[in-house]
Amino acid sequence: MPLSEASISATDPVAPDDQRPAVPLGKRVRRLVMQLGPSRLAATILFLVVAILIARFSWQMPLIDAAERALYDARATLMAPHVEQDKRVVLITYNDETLFNTGIRSPLDRTLLANALGNIDQMGAKAIGIDIAFDSPRPDDEVLKTQLRAMTTPTWLAYAEQASNPNTIFYEQQKFLEAFIADVATDKTKPTSVLFQTDDDSVIRKWPGRPKNLPPLMSNAMAPVDPAFGNFQGNIRFLVPARAAKGQEEPVFSNIPIDSFAIPMDDQTRAAFAEGIKGRYVLIGGDIIDNDQFNTPLSRFLDPITGQHETMIGLEVHAHMLAQQLDNAWSRPLAGPVLWILAFLIVLAGGLTSLIDLRARWVALAFLGQMAFFIAFPFWLQGRGVDTTTLPTFGWAIGWLFGYAAVGTAARTVGSRQRAFAQSALGKYLPADVAAQIMRDPDQLSLHGERRNIFCVFTDLEGFTKLSHAVTPETVARLLNEYLDRLSDIVLDHGGTIDKFVGDAVVAFWGAPLSRPDDGPKAAAAALAMYEAGEKFRIDMAEGVPPLGMTRVGLHVGDAIVGNFGGEGRIQYTALGDAMNTASRLEAANKALKTGVLISAEAAARSDRDDLAPMGRVTLRGRAQPVDVFSPRPDLDPEQRARIAAMVAAHTADDKNVYVTCATAIQAEFGQDPAIMFLIERLNNTKNGESYVLS
Fold first, then answer.
1. Are 360 and 24 in contact (CB under 8 A)?
2. Whole-angstrom Cα distance, residue 604 to residue 614?
3. What are phi and psi of 97, to 5 degrees?
4. pLDDT of 522-575, one tens digit each?
5. Is the pTM for the entire model greater than 0.85?
């Protein structure tokens, strides 16, 4: 291994970095080779060879391959073409409403399909692909078979075999499927392969292989394919919809329920429906919850509209592949020799960077330039139509770091600086709850104010001020420490940051300095847990001290300025802004609304909880904008919460008859629940969804 930077420069005159002359890079390399000696030089070369191998073959290495896939998914998502709706392909699907209406779930209603095919066949489609495996019998098989034999439009039936799909079809099903297809096959009705290829993490990224024993792949079968790409196995080009308006988007492919085409049609009706079918490729299959759903690169990130990690039905995957084929948008992989050259140059760059003897700002510039290359170059290639499913971008970074460490000690110097920086920040700036996370990843720490979207929680213990005047200071300290310990543990266990303690109140937030996808659900779970811990605390402390009230909790999400504030002598990592103020007002509103936990509508929407009951619309003290509030009520069953929600909705819609009916029933059922009874009282004193003003 190389000598340390100190021993390399031991003979240099000691001078400040900005004053000492720079040593030419070539001279530093020669000096390093001379000082290493044969054994250490051999070890360094071996280390560099390992670095090159990692920079070339990281896709085939355990653990690293997961990072490569994640980076590819980011490239595929961010560089995906944003398109208007593709008028060449239309999806016709069985959805959950279809299954409910037909009362048939599996196998799917074949009479419905036969009727739809009969109409679609007369509408001028280019081709029809049916992604439904007819691998088990139904009483209406003959109806469908008759229609399939009569098709005049090229129609392709899904085929799968046990050898290539052992987890989806068994031997008897395959035999039935083969017999079914053989019975309906004509020069227009033929089988097609619906085989997909998923990676080890069950994500579809590439076109599948085409085993010779299988019929043509659906995309290849339905539309002409360039023979040069007949066995293309590169990345699937997934498209994303162009935003039609703020918060709205038109799907890439229109998706129409099959019921619309299965109704009896006269010529005029059929002509009207034909406008959406004529000249298009029609794909028929299921769009059913928890069935035939696949993860794609787009699934890794939250959908901007739904806020969920969205999966894609198999039929839509076929549609994306078909559109890619129609556009002739075949990606080109980088040749093997090019990848070898890039791996060598990147490791060499890491090694040489460790020996740069320039002023700190130029070293930083060189470092940042190379980091920008690692980040931007793969995205640029993806945008230029290069297949980056085998591009070892994470391997490049590791190879660069290995080269940097093998040739010099700059990497260790940077590492020690990062650790010293984090340790200093932890001791001087940050609360203890993020210490372990920042030590693991110092780059996540921000020592300047920044705007972040955070979930804010305020708590307050009712009656503690009165208690503090009735017992000794030692008892106050003991009780307060016990109480704050319980609530602090809940915040930390749920991944939150403790902002401060204000007497018996706890202020915490989620989303800074580290942001996680599940901040909302964890913050909501912590809010309820803190309330429950407060209830348990006052029961545990009941003997020997005056009675304590409930712990009131408020939760809101919004933008806040997060950073270090306080001046030179006293600096605290905290959050400032309207989101914090709103959470504080929500906590205080619990007393008036006779609740224990109040969650704003914005936080409730991102809480991923199904036990929230609406508590109406209120104008918080000192605020002008009304807020819809919710309270977690796990003690109620779903029907009870639904009735409360229906009552509030009727009030908002000014549906007096429904509201009175709901309120009367709920009042009789929840006569002993002060929060719900006061909700009804507030609703009776307002109208048309007006807010109740808290004075």
1. no
2. 10
3. -70, -35
4. 999 999 999 999 888 888 876 667 777 889 999 999 999 888 776 555 567 788
5. no
